[in-house]
Amino acid sequence: MPAPKLIALDTSTEACSVALAVGEEKLERYKVLPRGHAEFILEMVDQVLAEAGLALTALDGLSFCRGPGSFTGVRIGVGVAQGLAFGADLPVVPVSTLAALAQGVHREHGAERILAAIDARMSEVYWAAYTVDREGLVVPQTEEAVAAPERVRLPDAEPWIGAGTGWGAQREALAVGCAVRECYPEQLPRALDCLPLAARMHARGEMLPAEEALPIYLRDRVTR
Fold it and tell me: Across residues 39-68, what is the average pLDDT?
């Protein structure tokens, strides 16, 4: 079975990105922005589609980082994903922002045991632990959660790699009780790393209709 043609987008943190997979070819647009994701994301979608010479309707699905992350950023991403998917009659494939972050750490650094943590403000982090399977894809070893950093606990005492803005904001507190060998506090999620995770979900038939593209916030309090 040929690989699905998928487009992915992410606006859930400071990073704003779009990536397109057509066969083995991948195209990407990526910017780190303090704000203004809504102004750039549709332009990025148009750019990668134009570069590939494809219409949105020619794709097999649309993936997006569904959170956790910035309340405003997650909301923008979900809204854009829904609108595009409705207009092109595409199924959606929601991917965890934390999983995309961990997948990027594996792709860039070869890490296979990753504690992903995103700054959640209010002296908390969004976090989850991942290992990498034989296909090179991250698999969660804990539930996604939001917690004070000193409450983060890993499944075992083996060495782990820390990644994400939570490590930049809460490095000392996160290290309590954690066997962390290396740390990449500037690592951000990107749409490029949604693509292999979305392809796996697509192969499993885990697509959803556009109206079921929902965000994951992990808590009711709003942090922008």
Answer: 97
Read off the pLDDT of residues 129-139 as tens digits, 9 standing for 90 and up: 999 999 999 99
Determine, yes or no, domain membership for 224: no
CATH number for the domain spanning 166: value is 3.30.420.40
Same structural domain, 17 and 81:
yes
Domain-embedded: residue 110: yes
The total number of structural domains that make up the chain: 2
Domain region containing 176:
98-184
Q: Is residue 44 part of a domain?
A: yes
What tens digit of pLDDT does each residue of 64-77 get? Answer: 999 999 999 999 99
pLDDT tens for residues 159-202?
899 999 999 888 777 866 567 889 999 999 999 999 999 999 99
Residue 16 and residue 42 in contact, taking contact as beta carbons nearer than 8 Å:
no
